[in-house]
Amino acid sequence: MQTQELISIASQVRRDILRMVHGCQSGHPGGSLGCTDLLVALYFDAMQLRVDSTSNQVVFAMSALNEDAFFLSNGHISPVLYSVLARRGYFPIQELSSFRKINSRLQGHPTPHEHLEGIRIASGSLGQGLSVAIGVAQAKKLNNDPAVVYCLMGDGEQNEGQVWEAAMYAPHHKVDNLIAFIDVNGQQIDGPTEKIMNNRDLQLKYEAFGWKVLHVNGNDLGDLQICLANAKNMLGNGVPIMILMRTEMGAGVDFMMGSHKWHGVAPNDQQLEEALSQLSETLGDY
Amino acid sequence: MSIYTFETKKDTRSGFGAGMEFLSLNNPKVVALCADLIGSLKLEPFIKNCPERFFQTGIAEANMIGIAAGLSIGGFIPFATTFANFGTGRVYDQIRQSVAYSGKNVKIACSHAGLTLGEDGATHQILEDIGLMKMLPGMVVINPCDYNQTKAATIAVANYQGPVYLRFGRPVVPVFTPEDQEFVIGKAIKLIEGSDVTIFATGHLVWESILASDILREKGIQAEVINIHTIKPLDTDAILDSVKKTKCLVSAEEHQLNGGLGDSIAQYLARTLPTPQEFVGVNDSFGESGKPADLMDKYGLNAVSIAEKAIKAISRK
Question: Could you tell me which of B250, B252, B254 has the C-alpha nearest to residue B293?
């Protein structure tokens, strides 16, 4: 897909995120806005998804057999995942209005428990997604399935010990059909990651564990497309790939950028209006 | 003289290993994971038969649970194996989110449960695992009583769709249930017919309950003995049928009283047919180092204790 088209979709996804979080007055807009470009690049360009040949619509299958699969480990940025899944055609766009409300399939954190198409694992309690993604990648190898597994984690999430268990495991077992990302926005709930729990040099750490490490500007869709293509070319060489993705929390809305303030805070009516004025309605609001 | 006899003693974990050996040859969807305890879990035959379906995770149980969940998404039936302490309590949140809440077809199969782990002491002797696992919505909890039953249970849970906690142990215990038995999840097994008191037992305490019934018979008391190998879902019909007749009961388990089998039975009977109940189990205490048999005696998890509690239950009718 042309970069310009992806940029256009990303603008609508950002509007969805803001309206969803505003609609229930809760949720996590900052990280969702920061990771919007990655999820758009994955679901609308990089990933090979299961598509019905007659209708050309995506079809959800839990097994993800012979299709690429994405796992969101930092589940609190559910708004961006829900918007991208709906916009890609996994479930009705109108359902985004039920986010975090009672009797909704769009729980605060993603879960297959409510049978929402596109969700294969619950996440929210941090540190578990990379392990799950590795398991899916190993299942693909057993099934002789050549598709790719993707996994996104947060940089604050790197505090969790299980992440490093998984980091050790994947290169040891040559899980080379896996592309993982860390959203390096430098923020966590209590403040900058450098002050709360310094990750220091994530490139050195992952390289020492045996990963191939790449860098990308996570808020530049052109850069993301190039990086994802490069990463895919490096698969199959016995080494898992980690992409350190620099993003701006709150990207796309000027007053939400540059601080952790909007990690888990919903905009009020006036703030929503101001934020939406910065984002074109490209595909029609839900 | 007991109506049950045995020719050999074997460990229940070897029953698990035999079940896995069977599955290695008969179910290509079964995969096994282990956190650096292959020998303790008796997984060598499985690994020999299908090395490509075995995943060594190292001493990293949290990651093991997540990888098992991932393998299940890809259509496999993962058995995540380690000691019961590290496979439940240590990784409770991983099981809760990635397995139970996500509805994954993962079997958490754990050895060395309870006091009978012995000399390693309380750090390894989990007595809370049944409670932890049974509290998780949708989780099946199974604690078979001997080698043959553990083998049968291992094969049965592979054919069941959904998360299962399978608990077994380290020491050799009498093998008294039939070879190649059919294991029906959630179906209690009446071992001895009686009329005065019912002993509901699980795991290693099933054999002790048979011995207790011998002690009681010598005193003229006819005890019914029922093997509750599946703590969840509980066979409430079997429980109700029995206590309607005997009108009192003892529950016996190698586990904390809080959260164990006795708790589940009491909760059910409180709602349906309040019945005098006595409890054999560990009473809000950690274990300690020692020989398994000595520990079971010290903590009152033996035939004599079960018989005493049965007499007390009868007196409360």
Answer: B254
Q: For B296-308, give the DSSP string.
A: HHHTT-SHHHHHH
Instruction: Specify the fold of B189-315.
Output: Rossmann fold (3.40.50)
A64/B63 Cβ within 8 A: no
Domains of chain B, residue spans: 9-174, 189-315
Facing residue for A113 by CB, picked from B69, B94, B103 = B103
pLDDT tens for B26-59 read: 999 999 999 999 999 999 999 999 999 999 999 9
- Quick check: B66 contacting A, CB < 8 Å? yes
Task: Specify the CATH superfamily of domain B9-174.
Answer: Thiamin diphosphate (ThDP)-binding fold, Pyr/PP domains (3.40.50.970)
Q: Is the pTM of this model over 0.95?
A: yes
Mean pLDDT of A86-109: 98
CA B125: distance to chain centroid? 14
Does A165 contact B93 at a Cβ distance shorter than 8 Å?
no
Q: What is the ipTM of this complex?
A: 0.97
Measure the CA–CA gap between A251 and A257, rounded to whole angstroms: 6
Q: Determine the 3-state secondary structure of A271 from DSSP.
A: helix
Q: Which of A63, A120, A161 sits opposite B75 (nearest CB)?
A: A63
- Return the residue matching tokens 């035959």: B45
Whether residue A197 is predicted with pLDDT greater than 70 in this model: the reply is yes
Does position A137 have pLDDT exceeding 70, yes or no?
yes
The CATH number fitting domain A3-276, selected from 3.40.50.150, 3.40.50.720, 3.40.50.970, 2.40.50.100: 3.40.50.970
